[in-house]
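Data availability (excerpt). The following record was deposited with the supplementary files.
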Amino acid sequence: MKAAWYEKNGTAKEVLKFGELDKPSPSPGEVLVRIVTSGVNPSDVKSRRAKPLSGPRVIPHSDGAGIVEAVGAGVDSNRVGERVWLWNAQWMREHGSASEFIALSGDQAVRMPDSLDFGGAACLGIPALTALQAVRLCGPMKDRDVLITGAGSAVGHYASQIALARGARVIGTVGSNERAAHARAVGVLHQIANSLATRQICTKGPGQTDLVWTYFGFADDDEEMTQRRLVQTNLAGSAGMISVEDAAVCEMMQHAMADAQEGESFIEMGGKELDIKGSNKLSERAIRNFWNHYRMDTGL
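Predicted structure:
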């Protein structure tokens, strides 16, 4: 069978080899799967680069999808011909899904629904199971507001679907129009455009400081996305409604953007106490302490 493998750590260009290896046979409790698509995850890349090899040769990739070709003893023969997706195919072993065939436990080859293609199936494994665990750790979802970063990317996209299916209202961050459409397709209607912002505090002397706030978009932003970023900048920038230090304020911003698009508002922040009482996370404690130390360091 054809396969890709490596025998030492390094970059793909340096260590990956491609050629012919012996076709495996299913042991008792295993199925032999003919691989159609092999999924690559960041963990696969990191392992190839630096994780000590557990044997003389590693065929990488934990995720994949294909068709059951044969079964070992103890496995229902009716499984032959099943379309399946794989999970943890290369976990604690040297043979992953970057090959024409793989023999693994029948439990790790899950029957695919007819509506799922092999490309999508190979993207389930690690991303979908990571998303499922993340949502489970948050407890009951019904009627909760949940912020999911990267709602248009692999893990975030699955987490959004799972949370929505469990009754949550999902607010998702997105990094481009394409990812925004990807998130919207599964029901993430409240979206925040990911942006990079930098704050430069430039001391000009006692009693004088310049704060330079630079807000970046993306080269492929269209007019709609640019306007969305400008609205967020005005709400969350240095002179905006609030200086965002915690993801918990994102829902407040969404309500402000949706309910008062033509209105104007401001928030007054005052006081001098450094140890603010109460359980409210949206306090000025960090900001006040920052400027208190700033005044001490500059002798103000």
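Summary of structural features: The domain at 2-123 is CATH 3.90.180.10 (Quinone Oxidoreductase; Chain A, domain 1).
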